[in-house]
Amino acid sequence: MDVSKSKKRKRTVAEASVAPQPPKKTRDEDSAGEEEQPVERQEEDDPASADEGDDSAPEEVPEGGASLLPAVSDPKTFRDLELHEKTLKAIDEMGFSDMTEVQRRTIPPLRAGRDVLGAAKTGSGKTLAFLIPAVERLQEARFKPRNGTGVIVVSPTRELALQIFGVARELMKHHSQTYGIVIGGANRKSEADKLSKGVNLLIATPGRLLDHLLNTKFVYKNLRCLIIDEADRILEVGFEDEMRQIVKVLATEDRQTMLFSATQTTKVEDLARISLRPGPLYINVDEGQQYSTVEGLEQGYVLCDADKRFMLLFSFLLRMTQKKKKVIVFFSSCNSVKYYAELLNYIDCLVLDLHGKQKQQKRTNTFFEFTNAEHGILICTDVAARGLDIPAVDFIVQFDPPDNTRDYIHRVGRTARGANARGRSLLFLQPNEVGFLSHLKEARVPVVEFEFPAKKIKNVQSQLEKLIGKNYYLQQSAKEAFRSYLHAYASHSLRSVYDVHKLDLAKG
């Protein structure tokens, strides 16, 4: 897209918002006193459970039937696949019939036993693409709790792990196999007890998984599938050494590996080399597509001076609240999220907040509260930007700049998720930051300029100054947020665009 002035199409933000719509902490850490996460269908009265924690005690997994190819050569619906009736019933109850492209291209080779390295845009239906073959393999092998863990799904964040766990729970509701989750911040002893009794499908974050592999006595010698989701994100947040150890510990003879990554970096290639068997199938559903973001996503930006940024955001969020829209707003730091949540709620613009400094149970409760809400506003850091499937998000707002175009794409991927879904995104840019548009163009991201009429911006600056001046707590929170904003800005990877020395601090 040409971002020159003569070529730009302008629409108002207000117009865009009402246009008719077509039919962290990054490492796992134990946190004493946190509420434990459930492991479903634990058969505690199973007579075999007394010695399930001993690798030598459980029986070997029975030989299941051979993995099946689709019933038709070009499957388009889940019914076209040779899936177990229990799986099909669950999929029907989840409301799915037709497969997405990543599901059409990924499930058949995975059912045939191939190792797969997959690249797909966020919101493409990837979770079901890897869970369905995994659940089918457990069913075919007739896994029981005493057989231990047959499938492990590794996820970069606790929130994404909880989300995958929720999908697995729906998919396996008619199956007898057990499933569970182990994540930092949950009760480790409770997790260990349940692992020892037998968790057939396990979802985990890397640090906590490695902890249990090294220190908890549970059965994983019968492992059939290792699934590494959002591999690039796992490596970005510093789990490279843990993943190498996990792959080494889980080096079972019959292990199939599925590795999914939104981007293919050198580190991802290295991880694929040590985890996948020779001759893996590479599937990239994004090849040949015109744009790097999904269809159905209308993307815009607004140019705004530093001293008008919050007033514009406040005015926009009030309008979204009145129209009962569902909005996610991204900030660059935990302190910024904390401050703006306090400020907005104080001035009767009700928001939820999610960031890495919160305790795990608080983050979990907030995530599910917003997920289940029909409308509302969530302000957050990038802890929520990858992989999370929050339904029916109408607008993504990037108040603070993403670190690069890849992070931009991940953020806007929280809306327009799934087939025929619609969504909108709004990027705040200061006049000195317009150079980011050329980076978006290079990354094949189509954006247009939105204008917000000045008469619709609520001028609350003087009231805010009085409020913060009288409220010591808000004043300290504002100072911490501003320091964190400057620190994040100064460490931006695109320093030619986001130059901290060009910020107008007098206006900010």
From TrEMBL:
Domain of life: Eukaryota
GO BP: any one term: rRNA processing
UniProt-listed PANTHER family: RNA HELICASE
UniProt domain Helicase ATP-binding: residue ranges: 107-282
Biased composition annotated in UniProt, kind: Acidic residues: 31-62
Catalytic activity: ATP + H2O = ADP + phosphate + H(+)
Domain DEAD-box RNA helicase Q: 76-104
Family stated for the protein in its record: Belongs to the DEAD box helicase family. DDX18/HAS1 subfamily.
Protein name according to UniProt: ATP-dependent RNA helicase
Places the protein is found: Nucleus, Nucleolus
Keywords, in A-Z order: ATP-binding, Helicase, Hydrolase, Nucleotide-binding, Nucleus, Ribosome biogenesis, RNA-binding, rRNA processing
Task of the protein: RNA helicase.
One of the Pfam families matching this protein, by short name: DEAD
Keyword ATP-binding (UniProt): yes
Biased composition (Basic residues): 1-11
Domain comment (free text): The Q motif is unique to and characteristic of the DEAD box family of RNA helicases and controls ATP binding and hydrolysis.
InterPro entries noted in UniProt: DDX18/Has1_DEADc (IPR044773), DEAD/DEAH_box_helicase_dom (IPR011545), Helicase_ATP-bd (IPR014001), Helicase_C-like (IPR001650), P-loop_NTPase (IPR027417), RNA-helicase_DEAD-box_CS (IPR000629), RNA_helicase_DEAD_Q_motif (IPR014014), SPB4-like_CTE (IPR025313)
Chief localisation class: nucleus
This enzyme's EC code(s): 3.6.4.13
